[in-house]
Amino acid sequence: MNIAIITGSGGLIGSESVSFFSKKFDKIIGIDNDMRSYFFGEEASTNWNVNRIKENVPNYEHHNIDIRNYADLEKIFNKYGNDIKLIVHTAAQPSHDWAAKEPLTDFGVNATGTLHMLELTRQHCSKAVFIFTSTNKVYGDNPNYLPLIEKETRWEIAEDHAYFKNGIDEHMSLDHTKHSVFGASKVAADVMAQEYGKYFDMSVGVFRGGCLTGPNHSGAQLHGFLSYLMKCTLTGNPYTIFGYKGKQVRDNIHSSDLVNMFWHFYQNPKKGEAYNAGGGRFANCSMLEAIALCEKISAKKLNHTYSDQARSGDHIWYISDVSKFQKDYPEWQYKWNLDDTLVDIYNTMSKTVSVKDCK
């Protein structure tokens, strides 16, 4: 039997992974205890998504387990052992604002939880492929010290800065920078995942995501940029832009394109390799540009205000250079551009969202 374990299976990337890999594996073991509702409130609960998966994926088996609980996790690994061929570890506390409120919880989930999954894989199914969803926040605010210029609707890297003109690659330093508490816990997990690959000779891939997005995102104010923005545009509920004149830039990758990266890695895995994984130059936008797109697609005006106070450690300009992954896996390519992604979010959300969802 071929089994895949997916943590955070009710979340954006976890649920996309369930949908994709359920067609390629005999059984999918999902682990998700809806910590997202604890982090961000009931509006961000993933229970709706877990219920959808249970109804639509016949080979899915759900476990309501906290990844900080090693003993409960070990029961699964003891039961299935070497039948486990893939682990997609997406469970996390994903907000750098929230992490500052409860650093112990943040580190426990992001760092200790990841170590639990890595060690259980090593002990029970060491030949399995382990995929870890890291974040561009491992680079801290180092990207903010690049030569940036202000344009009409966005910040952009100076045209004469040749090295990072296609985006930030994996040589950007993780050191000498303000990460945020969240970024620091993800650095710990990121480096540990690499170490298990290189030191223990395990097939481990680390994917440092830009803004991950798609229709199954339970967007909230502190996490879920495009999803939450579209939700507030649809409902008329207020949205706050924090700093940088709303010209801060993010690249955005559809959850389907990211999971397809996982699939290519699974078929030809590396030993502790790290990859930047975002929309790159193919799909990126500033806050102002994203608002304009949401308003155009929805035919509604966003009720937004502006705060001069930027989030501490936040990126002014971040675009991923994915050329390292494309070199290793040349058959992978993007399928979802920014407009198509936002239309996909709108089409799904407009069927279910209501004003109360965004309060």
Mean pLDDT: 93
Under CATH, the topology can be stated as Rossmann fold
What's the name of the CATH homologous superfamily? NAD(P)-binding Rossmann-like Domain
Instruction: Report the sheet-strand fraction.
Output: 15-25%
Secondary-structure-based class equals alpha/beta
Strands in their spatial order, largest beta sheet: 3-2-1-4-5-8-12
Report the count of strand segments: 15
Unreliable stretches covering 5 or more consecutive residues:
355-359
CATH architecture: 3-Layer(aba) Sandwich
Distance between the termini: 45 Å
Task: Sketch the major β-sheet.
Answer: 7 strands, parallel
* CATH class categorisation: Alpha Beta
Helix content range of the residues, please? Answer: 25-40%
Work out the helix count: 12
Give an overview in words.
There is one protein chain. With 359 residues, this protein is α/β, with parallel strands linked by helices. The chain has a single domain (3-358), classed as Rossmann fold, CATH 3.40.50. It has 12 helices and 15 strands. The chain has helices at residues 12-21, 35-40, 47-56, 70-80, 96-99, 103-124, 181-199, 225-235, 255-267, 287-298, 323-328, 338-349; strands spanning 3-7, 27-31, 60-63, 84-89, 129-135, 148-150, 155-157, 203-209, 211-213, 239-242, 249-254, 271-277, 284-286, 304-307, 317-318. The chain has a 7-stranded parallel β-sheet, sandwiched between helices. It is globular, with a radius of gyration of 19 Å. The protein starts with a strand and ends in a 10-residue tail after the last helix.
